Amino acid sequence: MWVKLQAVSLSSILSHLIISISLVGVAPRCYDTGNFTTNSTYGRNRDLLLDSLPRNASANGGFITATIGQGSDKVYALAMCKGDSTPEKCFSLVNDTIHELMDTCPNQKEAYSWTGDFSVVHYADHSFFGTLELEPSVAVYNTGNVTSNLTEFDTVWESLINSVVRKASNGSSSLKYATGEAELGAFQRIYSLVQCTPDLSEQRCDSCLRQSASRYESCCHGKQGGVVQRPNCYFRWEMYPFYTANASTTASLSPPPSPSSPPPPAASPPPNSVDSEIRKGKYRSARCMLISGIK
Ligand SMILES: *[C@@H]1O[C@H](CO)[C@@H](O)[C@H](O)[C@H]1NC(C)=O
Ligand SMILES: *[C@@H]1O[C@H](CO)[C@@H](O)[C@H](O)[C@H]1NC(C)=O
Ligand SMILES: *[C@@H]1O[C@H](CO)[C@@H](O)[C@H](O)[C@H]1NC(C)=O
Ligand SMILES: *[C@@H]1O[C@H](CO)[C@@H](O)[C@H](O)[C@H]1NC(C)=O
Ligand SMILES: *[C@@H]1O[C@H](CO)[C@@H](O)[C@H](O)[C@H]1NC(C)=O
Ligand SMILES: *[C@@H]1O[C@H](CO)[C@@H](O)[C@H](O)[C@H]1NC(C)=O
Ligand SMILES: *[C@@H]1O[C@H](CO)[C@@H](O)[C@H](O)[C@H]1NC(C)=O
Ligand SMILES: *[C@@H]1O[C@H](CO)[C@@H](O)[C@H](O)[C@H]1NC(C)=O
């Protein structure tokens, strides 16, 4: 009886989530700041540099900046993987992202792309390392509603987001990434993952993530999950675990007011289903979805 109930509710949660985080097919973005011609030195440099990124990013802990060439043929590139990616996963995510990018932006001097579960690749004919770029950005939400008292939810959520943002911003020049979870009443938990490209300063990382959190709040407050993606930072929260936690990147929280809580229910939808939906870019546009333009 219990098992059956469990199975029913699990699959209904699951299908709900798959519909709900059905987001955005916006990536990749080709910038309209100039084109190169086929077989040009810039084009060859771009292809060489992009080809090196999957291996270099995965060998380097999930983040790499690199350049190739001289003068007007110089290409700058950045690649980053989600902080809990294995080197193998990082390689294949960056490889996929680059192939999509090259298919979509065959001759653009600058382009940017991300995949949902997630990796970021950006290249340009000028240096953008350490520069905070807030656009293009995408904000999407899980269509389920928060069912608990929103006032109490907000307090827990804000404190969790504050903790993960502080922890990630205070990371190193090779990793600015944090996850965290907080108890919401006796039976629910909130999970969050935030990450900046670690070429950003602490202050710029903090700013990128806080602007992403407020963007979520202004578009989608009351929804039970959301993602905000920008060229330099990634923000996501859900009411189920969707990352692999690691003590060294877990933000510590002040203990909740009522400490006598039983463990959270075990039934959580497998994050892969949602993540692969995000990754495949099968996102549906939603009322609150915000996509803003490119410079
Ligand atoms: C670059 O090429 C694209 C087509 O591939 C074209 O739409 C765009 O206008 C070009 N941009 C510039 C700045 O020439
Ligand atoms: C680019 O180079 C290839 C191989 O060298 C050649 O076959 C092709 O015609 C060239 N394309 C252009 C537009 O010059
Ligand atoms: C990246 O890869 C290239 C060639 O694959 C290699 O020569 C270079 O040293 C690598 N750079 C870094 C920073 O790992
Ligand atoms: C890289 O991605 C492309 C297209 O997604 C795929 O065809 C290719 O096999 C991948 N390469 C590796 C080494 O995984
Ligand atoms: C969430 O709440 C909104 C407005 O309160 C309602 O229109 C919507 O149907 C709810 N969504 C779900 C999945 O319950
Ligand atoms: C929600 O919680 C706040 C603070 O605990 C309380 O003041 C408020 O009455 C609650 N609202 C509802 C609708 O239960
Ligand atoms: C930032 O991290 C360092 C260790 O890397 C730690 O000593 C310091 O207390 C942290 N600062 C904040 C504000 O968390
Ligand atoms: C946790 O993070 C540390 C430091 O980044 C790393 O050395 C370790 O391999 C990670 N552990 C797991 C299980 O991923």
From TrEMBL:
Domain of life assignment: Eukaryota
UniProt feature, compositional bias: Pro residues: 254-272
Keywords noted in UniProt: Repeat, Signal
Signal peptide span: 1-20
PROSITE patterns noted in UniProt: GNK2 (PS51473)
The UniProt record lists the keyword Repeat: yes
Domain (Gnk2-homologous): residue spans on this chain: 24-128, 134-242
Alphabetized InterPro entries for the sequence: GNK2, GNK2_sf
Region feature (Disordered): 251-281
UniProt protein name: Cysteine-rich RLK 29
Lineage per the UniProt record: Eukaryota, Viridiplantae, Streptophyta, Embryophyta, Tracheophyta
